[in-house]
Amino acid sequence: MTASDSFSDERPRIAIGIDTDWATDVHYSSIEGILTYGREVGWNCRLIPSLETSRDIEVLGRVDGIVARVTDALAAYCTERKIPTVNIWLNSPVLAFPRVIPDIAASTQLSAEHLIGRGFKDIAFLGLKNEAGSQHSIAGIEQVQNAPVKHFLTKSDTVYECSEWIHMILDVQEWIQTLPQPIGIIVMSDFLGRILIDACHELGLTIPEDVAIVSQASPMLHWAKIDPTLTSLDSNYHQVGYQAASTLDKLLHNEQVPSVTHIRPKGVVARQSSDTIATEDRVVARALRYIWDNAHTAPSVSDVAASVGISRRSLERRFRQAMNHAIHEEIINTRLRLAARMLIESDEAVKGVAVTVGFKSSDHFSRSFKKQYGMPPLEYRKRNR
Known about the structure:
By secondary structure, the chain is α/β, with parallel strands linked by helices. Helix content is 47%, strand content 14%.
């Protein structure tokens, strides 16, 4: 059966060109998002992974539209045949088609805030050379800490070959020895996260106490349970795929679409590689742990002070000295982070979310949420689903 034979009915015929060789959430969630939208509008979708790499693109047959990681060869094919196409490849060399991509700068800001919230005063970044995502990440971190970020971009732009892997470990080891400890390091991918973990082990550094790690991508399926598990960012790739399909639908109906649509991340998924609190004040560390574990109960500063066995005044002073912000701010921000995740992952009404995270008034919750996230709760939910 040829590709054209498989598209024999009268429904809009859509080709999905995303490689499935790598068991990554980036690819699989994007595909799921496209298929979800396709089912809603009655498309006939066909997954053709070879569209990314195959020189014989004629195997595609006749289609009405394409969502793909667009290569130069595919771009030439689609341009010549005037096929509506949406590009979801962040590092694609092709900029001529509408793109739907994750908001990497916002993602990195969340990762940096996660590490700062755990007491790390020094943040660094490990990425790949010649990669747009790495440059966006550096810019995102610098916005958070308002200073140049210590970063290292590997000499190679791939980590998929064993020989490159070994050389990168040696290069990263040399870089790590120039950094202070403890330090939080944001990595562009789980590949680089594993390289960093191996380099730290060779140097006798412990994770997460000496080096805490946050990956900008969800772990590959076969690495998800290898210790230490990697804290990672949920970049919302399902929504990337869904929005890309929606953009293609607009093209099919001759509607105007933006040249680039950025999809905001859902949030940080904490795992072993950042499960620590980087402060020498053990009382403050225990206070932070209490706040994180009990955010849904809306603890007061007095509740936290009682849990660690010191006076409120003493805790406020020690907390500010160790963390550079007030403990009351930490409590509010932790509750709002919990609320943000609930807005994305559940269908709970705003009033219910407010109650769950300890706000007695939904109006007070909405004002506090907008101050933190720059938009009302319902708009945040709409943008991030």
